[in-house]
Amino acid sequence: MNRVLCSCFLVLLISCRPEKDADAPAVDQTLGQTVDSVSNTRIDGTATASSPPLDIKQQIPELLEAHLNRTHAAWKFPTLTEFDVQRVPQEEQGPYFIEADFNGDTRLDYAIQVVERDSAYVYVFLRDKENGFQEYLLEQDQLYDIDAQKRSIRYLTLAEKAHQYHDYGTRKTISIPHDGVSVGAENYTATYVWDNGKFKKYETGD
Q1: Which domain holds residue 172?
Q2: How many domains does the chain have?
Q3: 45 inside domain
Q4: CB proximity list for 187: less than 8 A, separation 6 or greater
Q5: pTM of the predicted model, to two decimals?
Q6: How many angstroms separate the CA atoms of 70 and 145, rounded?
Q7: Can you give the chain as a three-state secondary structure string?
């Protein structure tokens, strides 16, 4: 008799359980995949697509960029071949831009290669006391059709004053008094050094 009563009681309990509400909103399973809008990385650590990083070799001081925008409005960085880019080790300055004290006045100066219209130019900008610039044109060269693009075949490196260089023009070994600007190309390197109020050119490579 007791078993019959227990069975009836269980049947009543089951029949009284509330049914699942068909109209209740479903739980969004994607809520746990919140995206960090600043870093474009999900909080769960999954990376999402982002824009490619800027080339650190093309990052120049704001002071120089503002001057170029004001005085060379159409300037842009040249397109180099991968081979020429790789000539300059990642930890060294170049191939587009270098900075050093080129004239020995303890102020930081800049050398940069830019494209204007259909030519490549290598400029040095010497800083003055008021943070203005004296501009010197070292080289101008045409652009070349390489791999379906107009490219410069020049690249810049820093010529350090602590080193000695062989000048193929005079066939002598020289020591330079200040850091200089070396402009390289295929089978060619010219180094420009400040001397008596102007940049003197040495043929330091072939």
Answers
A1: 56-205
A2: 1
A3: no
A4: 206
A5: 0.72
A6: 29
A7: CHHHHHHHHHHHHHHHCCCCCCCCCCCCCCHHHCEECCCCEECCCCECCCCCCCCHHHCCCHHHHHHHHHHCCCCECCCCCHHHHHCCCCCCCCCCEEEECCCCCCCCEEEEEEEECCEEEEEEEEECCCCCEEEEEEEEEECEEECCEEECCCEEEEECCCCEEEECCCCEEEECCCCEEEEEECCEEEEEEEECCEEEEEEEEC
The tokens for 138 are 């070292």
- As given in the structure block, the two tokens for residue 5 are 């009563």
* Nearest Cα residue to 159 out of 196, 190, 120: 190
Tens digit of each residue's pLDDT (9 = 90 or more) over 56-103: 889 999 999 999 999 999 999 999 999 999 999 999 999 999 999 999
In a domain, 47, yes or no: no
Domain presence at residue 156: yes
Cα–Cα distances in angstroms (integers) from residue 12 to residues 5, 6, 15, 17, in the given order: 11, 10, 5, 9
Using one digit for the tens of pLDDT, what is the confidence trace for 6-23?
444 444 444 545 554 445
Could you tell me if residue 89 is inside a domain?
A: yes
How far apart, in whole angstroms, are the C-alpha atoms of residue 139 and residue 141? 7
Q: How many CA atoms lie within 13 A of 132 on its CB side?
A: 3
